[in-house]
């Protein structure tokens, strides 16, 4: 072997960095591919990146979550998973570079990352010990690939690029890519078979025993730009903590009703469909919605009466909360008093004449008119525990959000849009307003702080839905501020006081500035 000069050594070490990074990335890919395959059997939430991402969601402080929702909106999940993936890429590359010189510490580093994946998977709500398997299997594959590839790369370098040894490395690298790609793809395909999309398609919902009255003619204004009264399913806002959609099979679904009750029971989906089903128009809103924001949606729901189910169980005195739990461990605490006060609280199975979309809770969810979603609208619901606020907290209330969260009276200006330019003359000003279960009695609009003018209100089927409103504005050239406020049917005027969503929902008047030319 030729003597190696200092310069050669430095040059080789530098050249080793990209190769090291490549080795790290290949080992990381093998780890994630094998983990993905294992997760096809143990459930998607046990896949390391998803488990770490889910843990990150749960540990994120409220201010950062607020910022993420505000900045990325409903793309917050993609941004989070992208960040976790980018972190994994950087770690894998660094470990690969380290492995060129120090194989044992590098393997230890990779094993530590794997352990973080194991810890994240095991501490997700509603999991069992098998959730550790994907991260463990992935770590084993990753460490094996790391040791093999760095050993072969070292041998090739030592033999000064003798052809045979370089070939050894290339075979190893090719094999690793193959393992990563095959296991990853197989994992994806197998996981696809867990999808309940087929079960949803085959499901026929029974007719309601209590149908909703037809929507009054004109409930939806035909003003371009105003939200449709019943938005198409894909436009219905979605807010939840699920990084992968829970796939809950109606064939094995049960709902357990227990806790402070005289007669705990469990029902299957077939039994649920045999109960009297109510069809009701109810608008749902999210506590995270900013003034003027998009997190409100309306649907015609089909479901069993929630108070009826609680009466069947026999709520004991002293209980003041229903703690509902979803298949993926999310929980919501709903005041029993509200559920039992005569409003149409539903254990819903249908949305707009179809089974619930998977993203909106298939096969069953709660809907309680008048409460924000986080204290009432548990999707993929599998468990109802009758309890007390003094004893049990829920996912968001544990993080400081309010226990009692009735929706605030809110008017939103849909047209003209903020910062839009409009032609001088008669301009339609229109939008939606909501005060679920109290009802909207008036919407008023003012321009540049002038006198309030009453808007025309579209008819509504009941007090649990949003209401569209409309006004013609004689717009003069210049820049103008439009403000809207609603009055609910108890006579209370929407408060002007600005509040952030945290901890009990945003308040204040929605305003838009427009330029008239
Ligand atoms: N399982 C589960 N259910 C959930 C949530 C969740 O994170 N997980 N989020 C709640 C919140 S905060 C809201 S506003 C509504 C939103 O329902 P949607 O996604 O159908 O619009 O679902 C509620 N139900
Ligand atoms: Mo929400």
From TrEMBL:
> Please, which domain of life does this record's source organism belong to?
Bacteria
Per UniProt, which keywords does this protein have? Membrane, Transmembrane, Transmembrane helix
Where is the chain membrane-spanning? 12-35, 79-99, 106-123, 129-149, 169-191
Which SUPFAM superfamilies does the entry mention?
E set domains (SSF81296), Oxidoreductase molybdopterin-binding domain (SSF56524)
Tell me one GO biological process term.
sulfur compound metabolic process
The answer to whether UniProt assigns keyword Transmembrane to this entry is: yes
Which Pfam families does the entry mention? Oxidored_molyb (PF00174)
- Is Nucleotide-binding among the key words of this record? no
Query: Domain named Oxidoreductase molybdopterin-binding: which ranges?
Result: 245-392
Gene Ontology molecular function terms on file: heme binding; molybdopterin cofactor binding; sulfite oxidase activity
**What PANTHER family does this protein's entry cite?**
SULFITE OXIDASE, MITOCHONDRIAL, SULFITE REDUCTASE
This protein is called Molybdopterin-binding oxidoreductase
Q: Which organism is it from?
A: Actinomadura rubrisoli
